[in-house]
Amino acid sequence: MENVAESDDVRTSIIHLPDDCLSFIFQRLDNLDDHDSFGLACHRFLNIQNINRRSLQFQCSLSLLIPSSLSQPTLAVNSDHLHRLLTRFQWLEHLSLSGCTVLNDSSLASLRYPGARLHSLHLDCCYGVSDDGISTVASFCPNLRVVSLYRCSISDIGLETLARAASLALRCVNLSYCPLVSDFGVKALTQACLQIESVKISNCKSITGVGFINSSPTLSYVDAESCQLEPKGIAGIISGGGIEFLNISGAVSYIGKDGLVPIGSGVASRLRVLNLRMCRTVGDESIKAIAKGCPLLQEWNLALCHEVRVEGWVAVGKWCYSLKKLHVNRCRNLCDQGLLGIRRGCKNLRILHMNGNARLTSTAVEMFKLHRGDVTLRSEEVMVIGPDWRLYTRG
Q1: Cα separation of 113 and 130, whole Å?
Q2: Cα separation of 340 and 159, whole Å?
Q3: Which of 67, 69, 102, 63 is nearest to 85 (CA)?
Q4: pLDDT-based confidence at residue 53 (cuts at 50, 70, 90)
Q5: E strand or H helix at 366
Q6: Domains of the chain (ranges plus CATH)?
Q7: CB distance 237 to 210 below 8 Å
Q8: What is the pLDDT of residues 121-170, one digit of tens each?
Q9: What's the rounded Cα separation, in Å, for the pair 122 and 94?
Q10: Residues 199-244 pLDDT 10s
Q11: What are the tens digits of pLDDT across the range 325-359?
Q12: What per-residue confidence (pLDDT) applies to 255?
């Protein structure tokens, strides 16, 4: 009877729950304040909080992960701050150091703590990070799927090192405004990473596109705005056959009237979104080839494509069966007859962005409205179209 009485006095509290149960409770706290206060209860609860942290970014970050991943406000994240945080949160899968401008190559040594578990790493505007830092990333983070190096001082050497180290995992890479990266680095990336899905190389002036030749068929997204692309480079970008989104806007003087004909050769038959804004020299032959050879095309930006004339516009109307959005802002040679060609075709067109077309008469526009009441006319000029690259960076 005494033993029974003693057992009745034993009380169970939350402290007696195993760690996996406490983790289960923590993961189901919806309120961010509850997340923060959980670790204040005791050292054990703090450890539960630490091992359940999967994402981390800072208030200065340019890359939004998820709200719960934000750290406390910090004016300038330095090497010491980063070291303390990464020794605490060793189970991170997503890390954004974007906007942490005081970090340098040696700062990245702290990546050895969460390194093997990291799936995505954003280093946008980390101006002090160069090839040495990327070599450190390559050493500690072999399972990276997403890497954003916007405005970093990385060269072909660092890119090749990273590509070889993460060749089995790497899928999304942002190299925008990396002036030291050339076709050699792009080739190293696309040849080593057979699962590569998306690459951003916008404003990389040393890239012509030839580094993409014989790239993986998994490559579906390429943003090459304002690059010095050549016709052979354009053919290289689409050579894998998987391209669905292609942005080559701002390719002014390197393509020529017929330089985009390869896009319509059938290799890019899966293309859905094409941005040719400010490709001023592209002519009718290229437009006709693309219209015929890309049957799935749903959005096409031809704003400021001044050399597209009646023959090109008629081809768009005749062959672009799937087109839903078309941008023709400030096209000098879009005339009444060209608009008529669009009006008579493009049966699935729903939105037409059009303004500043000096050769169009008000009568032609009114006739378009009368006959195509299913199409919404919008005057605003859109520079960025297609899916947000962040959709590809969920890691």
Answers
A1: 21
A2: 49
A3: 69
A4: confident
A5: helix 362-371
A6: 15-52 (1.20.1280), 54-189 (3.80.10.10), 208-380 (3.80.10.10)
A7: no
A8: 999 999 999 999 999 999 999 999 999 999 999 999 999 999 999 999 99
A9: 9
A10: 999 999 999 999 999 999 999 999 999 999 999 999 999 999 999 9
A11: 999 999 999 999 999 999 999 999 999 999 999 99
A12: 79
**Pairing mode, if any, of strands 172-174 and 198-200?**
parallel
What is the number of helices (H) and of strands (E) in the chain? 13, 13
Q: What residues contact residue 180 under an 8 Å CB cut-off, 6+ apart?
A: 153, 154, 155, 156, 206
Residue 86 dihedral angles phi and psi, to the nearest 5°: -75, -25
Report yes or no: 223 and 251 within 8 Å, Cβ to Cβ.
no
From the CA atom positions of the chain, what is the Rg in Å?
26
Can you read off the two tokens belonging to residue 124? 């946008």
Long-range contacts of range 33-39, CB-CB < 8 Å, 24 or more positions apart?
A: 35/68
Name 5's Cβ contacts closer than 8 Å, sequence gap at least 6. Answer: none
Q: pTM (2 decimals)?
A: 0.86
